[in-house]
Structures are given as structure tokens and as C-alpha cells.
Design goal:
Elements lengths: L2 H10 L1 H21 L4 E11 L6 H11 L2 H11 L2 H11 L3 H5 L4 E3 L6 E8 L2 H17 L6 E7 L12 H44 L5 H6 L9
Antiparallel strand pairs: 1-3, 1-4, 2-3
Helix pairs in contact: 1-8, 2-8, 5-7
């Protein structure tokens, strides 16, 4: 199919492209309007040798231990455990289910001794409160008295939601609607070609079996002899 043919098909079936795009964008806009905004808060803690260590060898061993990812990942995993959720819920005076709805997660950036505690909730203040409470609980835990946790960046209530993202979703809806409309336009053209091709073939076959006579031939031509003669 040439580019000129493709453009002609789109011009002929422009209404399919417009309809598909309008339906896709409209349904996406309705979905965005019905969604509640979700806010994300985060606090960052640092793992370091405990201040009570005085032996240089113990300090060196602790530093070497912190270079192994399994140590940091273990501490990060404890921050998202059910026992941590229960402690946070008890301190805040909230049901455990409400704390679980904050979706506490931990991120361990590579090549660092940092752990980022992230929370997501429809209430930005509650999201920040849970993140900071988890971080405080991590500070209060005893990691064999050799590793201490220090909060270096507390969470603040976010002002901008992370979801839904109207501009991104509507842009994707426009692109998907255009692709869907073009596909419908090509399908309509293919079906129309099949219908037109079948009709033309029938006319050609009929014309070959009984060609039409001109008015002069119809007058001059003698009648066909009958079987009785």
C-alpha cells in the first residue's frame, strides 16, 4: 500500500479515527475523575557503626558488615514486617489495617548505607506520619549493639499526588485512540474492497454469458429458428 493510498483511506474514513479517539479519551478522562489522589512520602535513614563501640577492630568489622547488602536488606525488610506495622499502629493509636493501607516500602540505593522508607496514602499528612514513625522505630531497635540508625531526612506531607497522572494518561489515550481509529479505517476499507470486488465479478460474468445488443442489431437480426421448423 502506497502512502497516497493510505492517506486517501484515512480521509475517507476520518470519522472512524475521530470516533475512536474521542471514546478513548473520554473514558480515560472519566477514569481519572473517579480516582482518588494518592500521595507519597519518604524519609531516609543511615546505617552506621554504633557510637558505643570503642574498639577500632569492632568499628572496622561493623563497617565491613555494612558493605554487604544482605545486612542492609535484612534491616530494610524488618521495617516492612507485620511486627513493625503493629508497633506503628500502637504508637499512633490507629488500627493495623489503616497502617497497612499506607503501603510501607523500603528502598536501598546501591553503594550506600541508606534506607529510604516510602509510604503512599490518600491522606498526605498520614503518609508522612507513618513514614516518620517507622523511621523512629528503626532508630530504637537494637541491631546487636553494633549498628545504629540515624534519621537524616524526615518526611513532610506532600502537596502533589503521584497518581493519577492526568496529562500522561490522556496523552496515552490520544495515541491509543489514533492507532485504534487507523486500524478501524483500514479494516473498513478492506471490507469495502471485498464487497465491491464481489459485485464487479458478478457483473462481468453475466456480461460474458449474454452480451447486450444495440438497437440496430435488435431490429436487423432475424429471429432464432424454432425446433419445429
Amino acid at each position: 500500500m502506497s502512502l497516497a493510498t493510505f492517506i486517501r483511506i484515512l480521509i475517507r474514513n476520518w470519522w472512524l479515527v475521530v470516533l475512536a479517539t474521542a471514546l478513548t479519551v473520554g473514558s480515560t478522562a472519566l477514569f481519572v475523575l473517579l480516582q482518588k489522589p494518592v500521595y507519597q512520602a519518604s524519609t531516609i535513614v543511615e546505617l552506621k557503626p554504633s557510637a558505643v563501640l570503642e574498639d577500632p577492630n569492632q568499628i572496622l568489622n561493623t563497617i565491613n558488615a555494612l558493605t554487604r547488602r544482605n545486612v542492609i536488606n535484612t534491616i530494610a525488610r524488618k521495617a516492612t514486617s507485620m511486627s513493625m506495622h503493629e508497633e506503628v499502629a500502637k504508637e499512633l493509636g490507629k488500627p493495623v489495617e489503616e497502617v497497612l493501607s499506607a503501603q510501607v516500602r523500603t528502598i536501598t540505593p546501591p553503594e550506600t548505607n541508606l534506607i529510604e522508607v516510602r509510604t503512599q496514602h490518600a491522606d498526605p499528612v498520614f503518609a508522612a506520619l507513618v513514614a516518620n514513625t517507622v523511621a523512629r522505630k528503626m532508630v530504637g531497635q537494637d541491631y546487636e549493639k553494633v549498628i545504629s540508625v540515624e534519621i537524616i531526612d524526615q518526611a513532610v506531607p506532600p502537596t502533589t499526588p503521584i497518581a493519577p497522572q492526568p496529562l500522561r494518561l490522556l496523552t496515552l489515550a490520544v495515541v491509543f485512540g489514533l492507532i485504534l481509529g487507523v486500524a478501524f479505517a483500514l479494516l473498513e476499507q478492506a471490507l469495502q474492497s471485498l464487497r465491491t470486488g464481489a459485485g464487479i465479478s458478478g457483473i462481468d460474468i453475466g456480461a460474458a454469458q449474454m452480451p447486450p445488443l444495440s438497437p440496430v442489431e435488435a431490429v436487423v437480426s432475424p429471429p432464432a429458428p424454432s425446433k419445429d421448423e
